[in-house]
């Protein structure tokens, strides 16, 4: 990630928060897959500001995104599943994540534990709650649904056994063009089968080995990116008819710069302390091209990345039909 400020950069102090804190993922004019893993919590300076000091980031969309999640879960309960042996991993995640959230956001969140009794406060939701660790009935909803009602990230749990990792639980309402319901019960390597180049490049195999060696308490992160038309978080395979057709028309749409968003995921990987399960957190950020263009270096970089991206990667990301139009707009400056 570059930290250089050039003469061409805008005055970043006047940029809105959504731009200053956006995790712009490109450090050069081209992009290839890599394991790109780094320790969590490290602040990254960008040309517009910074991101990454927190594990859990509550932003201006906190209430609206959690409301949207609740509605999606109501319509489609398959977006959350917990295989029976993962029940303890979910409680492990609750007793790991709530204290982190309270520590990182002490003005809005609080957590106290006395034996197995916990008290959770969240002023953003006007919520005060007492529950007993391990007792599902002491929570107002299922334990994973409860955690998913407090945190903007999607949650995926991997169970390490038989020298591999099994995607055996999760709550995913904001998937970028994949289906949690389809992947649940699969192995890590199977989940990545559709990704191009997995047969010839070692990235996914390396990621697998890395995750298998994670030690309890360790926390790492990486970013991934794609593009989304509209400020639409739910681009799961299940709702493809709602958003897929836009991919065929956006290139001709005069409003492309406002509608087309760069979508960046900050993905955290934690080894839970009591069960050894891997918790994979996916937090999605969306920024329209018009906002990207307010930072001259971002405008140029994204323009070049989109133009240069190999066709197989562009096709997999679903951006192949409009990336040229986007790149042309960005590079026209
Ligand atoms: C260091 C760790 C990881 C690396 C390097 C990695 C790498 C990748 C890459 C390169 C892609 C293609 C993305 C694109 O072109 O937009 C991908 C997709 C994906 N990854 Fe990972 N990944 C990692 C961890 C995980 C974990 C822990 C999970 C959770 C099970 C996961 C689930 C997925 C899914 C569901 C997809 C979409 C697959 C589809 O299209 O069906 N990844 N990953």
From TrEMBL:
This is DUF3445 domain-containing protein. It comes from Arthrobacter livingstonensis. InterPro entries: HODM_asu-like (IPR021848). It holds the Pfam family HODM_asu-like.
């Amino acid at each position: 990630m570059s930290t250089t400020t050039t003469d061409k950069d805008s005055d970043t102090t006047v940029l809105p928060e959504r731009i200053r804190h956006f995790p712009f993922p490109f450090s050069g004019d081209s992009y290839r897959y890599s394991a790109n893993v780094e320790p969590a919590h490290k602040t990254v300076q960008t040309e517009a500001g910074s991101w990454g000091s927190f594990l859990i980031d509550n932003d201006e969309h906190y209430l609206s995104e959690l409301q949207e999640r609740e509605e999606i879960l109501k319509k489609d309960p398959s977006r959350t599943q917990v295989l029976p042996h993962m029940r303890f991993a979910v409680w492990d995640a609750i007793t790991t994540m709530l204290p982190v959230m309270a520590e990182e956001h002490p003005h809005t969140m609080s957590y106290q534990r006395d034996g197995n009794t916990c008290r959770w406060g969240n002023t953003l939701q006007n919520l005060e709650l007492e529950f007993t660790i391990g007792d599902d009935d002491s929570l107002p909803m299922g334990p994973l649904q409860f955690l998913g009602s407090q945190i903007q990230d999607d949650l995926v749990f991997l169970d390490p056994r038989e020298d591999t990792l099994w995607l055996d639980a999760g709550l995913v309402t904001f998937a970028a063009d994949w289906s949690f319901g389809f992947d649940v019960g699969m192995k890590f390597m199977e989940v990545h089968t559709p990704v191009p180049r997995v047969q010839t490049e070692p990235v996914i195999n390396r990621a697998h080995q890395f995750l298998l060696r994670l030690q309890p308490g360790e926390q790492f992160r990486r970013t991934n990116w794609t593009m989304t038309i509209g400020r639409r978080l739910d681009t799961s395979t299940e709702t493809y008819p709602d958003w897929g057709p836009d991919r065929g028309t956006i290139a001709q749409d005069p409003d492309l710069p406002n509608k087309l968003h760069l979508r960046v995921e900050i993905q955290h990987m934690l080894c839970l302390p009591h069960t050894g399960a891997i918790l994979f957190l996916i937090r999605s950020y969306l920024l329209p091209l018009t906002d990207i263009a307010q930072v001259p270096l971002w405008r140029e970089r994204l323009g070049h990345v989109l133009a240069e991206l190999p066709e197989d990667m562009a096709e997999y990301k679903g951006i192949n039909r409009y990336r040229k139009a986007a790149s042309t707009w960005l590079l026209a400056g």
